Amino acid sequence: MAIHPAAAAMRRSHDALAALVPTLTPDQLTGPAYPSEWTVSDTLSHIGSGAVIGLMALDAALSGEPPPDRSAFSAVWDEWNAKDPQSRAVDAVAANAKLTEAWAGVDADRVPGLEFRLGPMQVDGPTMVRMRLGELALHTWDVAVVVDPAAIVEPAAVEQLVDDLGLVASFSGVPVDGVPEVVVATTDPERRFTIGITDSVSLGPAGAGSGAADAVLPAEAFVRLIYGRLDPAHTPAGATGGAVLDRLRTVFRGF
């Protein structure tokens, strides 16, 4: 059986989470995460409750049963909201381990045939597993950066996410005035993207005639930019196009 590449990357991100959580002090658990609107405990609760709901959805997709409804989600959220900070931390790792191994147990050839309902949207298996990978990897960074300001998103996750950011950009992007199109180049891996900013926000591969890049930065930082996590203090020193990045920060404000 072959494991889907995004599920393999999820394992790497889970290992990072599992190594990080035992190092957190009680003060860190109740202190701010990134962004500061949530505590570290809140972020871990989100990872854990999302894993429980994600496993319910995956089980339904694999069995052909109807997806869980909103009332099932509310019960999970109520349970996690009632946990104390230490329990949230420990239980988040355990819950995420179950979901991670469940995805790892789905043959890669079967993943494209899975269907998931997300509110009004229907998404396929590859989209769903990458969405969970992004949620796990970026929220793990939200916690890790509290401990180490130089923390980075797990490289295996970046490799899987960097070519699949269009959906995230369309949801998270907020149109602002200015040049309607920006070209961004990344390193490690090397990519070129066009970000369209009109009455909506779009992101896709840059065409052959797109010209010189307006900004260049590592792919890891670009992923964080689209997820609203590239403030100046956490921007790599070698990134170029500072004014363009400042504008893009107003487009991608995080969620």
TrEMBL record:
NCBIfam families listed in its UniProt record: maleylpyruvate isomerase family mycothiol-dependent enzyme
One example GO MF annotation: metal ion binding
Official protein name in the record: TIGR03083 family protein
Cross-referenced InterPro entries: DinB/YfiT-like (IPR034660), Maleyloyr_isom (IPR017517), MDMPI_metal-binding (IPR024344)
Domain Mycothiol-dependent maleylpyruvate isomerase metal-binding span(s) in chain numbering: 11-144
